[in-house]
Structures are given as structure tokens and as C-alpha cells.
Amino acid sequence: MPVAVAADAARRFEEACEHARISRDTHELLMRPKSSLEVAIPLRRDDGSLEVYAGYRVRFDDTRGPAKGGIRFHPDVDPQEVTTLAFWMTCKTAVMDLPFGGGKGGVAVDPKQLSAAELERLSRAYVAAVADVLGADVDVPAPDVATDEMVMGWMAHELARIRRGHQPAAVTGKPLALGGIPGRSSATSEGAFHVLEELRASLLGDLDEPSVAIQGFGNAGAQLASRLAGAGYRVVAVSDSSAAVHDDDGLDVEALRAHKDRTGSLQDPPSGEQLDAGRVLTLDVDVLAPAALEGAVHEGNAADVRARMILEVANGPVTAAADTILDEAGVQLVPDILANAGGVTVSWFEWIQGRQGEQWSAEDVAERLEARMLRETGAVVRIGQERNLPLRTAAYVHALERLTEAIDATGTAELFSGG
Ligand code: NAD
Q1: In the chain, which end has fewer C-beta atoms inside a 10 angstrom radius, N or C?
Q2: Is 336 inside a domain boundary?
Q3: Are 123 and 236 contained in the same domain?
Q4: How much distance in Å is there from the Cα of 217 to the middle of ligand 1?
Q5: What share of the chain in percent tops pLDDT 70?
Q6: What is the 266 CA–ligand 1 centroid distance (Å)?
Q7: What confidence tens digit (pLDDT) does each residue in 330-339 have?
Q8: Is the CB of residue 318 below 6 angstroms from any atom belonging to ligand 1?
Q9: Which residues are designated catalytic?
Q10: Which CATH number goes with the domain that contains 289?
């Protein structure tokens, strides 16, 4: 039997089930992934030595469509993390009403220790190891932590080589030149921006220049910082795994991004003062956007959070125990399965583009992304108001009710809960 999701995710699932009209079948089926593949990935290092890494691909549920979810390269990747991320993808695609299920993959490796050539060999070896379970109608990978469009290009190219034919809809997040779509790399931050703007008045009131702190300065976090700074927010702090930078008057985000591109880190920044990394999470700001990894806000630091609201750009950045503490403190929370769903939404556009041999314009992508983010944000807010639920539970209820419709349509079911 495949490994189940982490206890935190299971707890939230059970809580949401109490408020959702779902069948017993749905409850039982979503307790564990449908399939879970664990592989050994050999990598020939530049010095001629061989290393073998653990790799994973989990298909959590594919009732609503092919599994969809990113591939992560990080030393902490393990079967339970991948499974939990695949469960969240299942909920996310359902919240957004995309014709996908949920999946996730990863390799337990520190990519910072690899040369560019080693990273390419590892990406290709990963695809070779899991190729049997990938495909446009089966399971479609995308970028996640430390896997950018270059990595997805190598993976798409490798899959095409293995299948002896182009597979443009079998991998998303590809470079434009290989069938990628305009706006994919900024889609996660763009989606989060639309959700924030939609909820801004109700969560922050009539604030002139809301202050923001962002943990994680990678694909999602750095692009969100630019988007918010350009839209009149004051980005007062950002951090990556090496350092944190702070300026109460607002950071020069573009200068910081250029510095990070040039040096690879936020250390010795061109402006602003260095800050203890953990302090980014507890600054007195209007919006805190954790955009790094799971569990950033936990039982041990949740009481110190001073932000008025948290926008979950990362997957699972706030633990279930922290949820309770934040809720009691009146901190509003916009959940990951809504806030960061822009990425998978634009991956859907790329999948359609690949299946139909189309070339979408940046304007089409931007327009359709915004429309979908606003539509589903509105639906989650309505469920929250009608059933008196926090946004996180409302988002899960929304997802679970869509999942139960699909699962029940595949057979008979009895009611699990009356909602
Ligand atoms: P990335 O690898 O581009 O960036 C991750 C960033 O987090 C890096 O700047 C890294 O230095 C930083 N980081 C790591 N540990 C940290 C720590 N302890 N403190 C501060 N910073 C730390 O990854 P990404 O694609 O931006 O993904 C970030 C998060 O967003 C992940 O949770 C991912 O699952 C989620 N997400 C990404 C996408 C996407 O399309 N890329 C979509 C949805 C959700």
C-alpha cells in the first residue's frame, strides 16, 4: 500500500469532510494515493563517479483527469512529502475546476551541489526512470522547487526521445521554444496577486500602501515581489535560504533580483539591511507571503506572527497546529490550494496548447488566468460565508464536493456526511 499523506494534511482533510457533502467512497478513496512509484536514479558525476538518488512519482487521484503536479529537487524530498504534495494538487485542480487530478514527483538531491551538466543528466535520468507512468492523458509533470523551465525542457526532450515522437502536452512549464506558453513562469505569482487583490478590501480594508514580507525568493516569491511592488504594495522584507533583507521604506525589488541572479543569493544586498531569516515571518506587516517550503509557520512561531493576513504562496507553509493559533489571533489566511493555483492553471493552458497544436498569446493567457482565479476565489468566499467557515476549510469543501461529483459519477455511493 502506498504511503499516506502527512498527519497535518490528513487532519485538514477530515475537518473539511465534516463540512462537505461527500460520499463515503470519496472519503475512502482520498485517504491514500492511487499509485506511488519509487525509483533509483543513477547519475554519472563530472568526475566520473556514480551516485544513485531516490526518485518518486505519485499519482494521488485521477478521477477528474490526468494527474498534474510538479517535480521537486530537494534533499528533504521523501515518499510522504511527495504524497502530501500530490494530495494538495488533487484538491487544487478541483478548486480551480481544471480537468486534472493530482500528482507530484521529486528527487532527494541537493541541486546546488551539481554542475549544469550533472543537473541535465539527472533530469533526463529521472524521466527515463518514471517514463512508463507519464503521458498527456495519464500524468503531466511541471516545475516546482529547483526545477525551472530549462529542467522541464530537458525532461520534455527526453520523453520525446524515449517515445520516439513529440509529446508537447506531456510536460508543462517548458521553454517557449519547445512548446511552452507565455506567462507560465510568472503564473503562480500572477495568480496569487489576483487572489490577493480580490480579497484585499475585505481582508485589509482601505489601506493605501499595504506592507508585505515574502519568505522565499525563487520563481514564485521573487516574481510576486516584483508584481506587488509594481502595483503599489510596499515590499519591506524578502528572504531566501541564505539570507534575509529588510527596509521599512520598501525594498528595491528589481535591484535585489538582479543581485540574486548575479550572485545566486541575497547575501550582501545592494540596499536594505540584513535580517535574521526567521524574523521575516514575524514582522509587523499587512501581508505575509511564505513562498519557500512546507511548515514555515508552525506551533513554535505562530504566536509571534504580527501580519494581518497570510497569503500561502508555497504549498503547505502553515501547519495545522499553527492554523488554530493564527485563527485565535485573528490573522486571516488565504490557503495554498487557492492562492498558488495560478501555476497549474497556466499549465492547463499549455496542455491544451500542446494537444491542439496552438500558440496562445500572452494576452489570452493573462485574461483567462485572471478570469479563472477570480471565479474560483468568489466561489470559495461564498462557501465560507454561507457555511461560516474559514477560507481554508471553504476551499477544501469546494474541492471535495467537486471530487465527490466525479468519483460518484463513476459508481454508486452513499452519503458520508450531510454538510
Ligand atoms: P524555487 O526553487 O524557485 O524557490 C524556492 C525559494 O525558497 C528559493 O529562493 C530558496 O532559497 C528559498 N528557500 C528555501 N528554504 C528557505 C528558507 N528556510 N527560508 C527562506 N527561503 C527559503 O521554488 P518555487 O517554484 O518558487 O516554489 C516555492 C514554493 O511555491 C514551493 O512550496 C512550491 O511547491 C510552491 N509552488 C510553486 C509553483 C511553481 O509553479 N513553481 C506553483 C505552485 C506552488
Answers
A1: N
A2: no
A3: no
A4: 7
A5: 98
A6: 14
A7: 999 999 999 9
A8: no
A9: 104
A10: 3.40.50.720
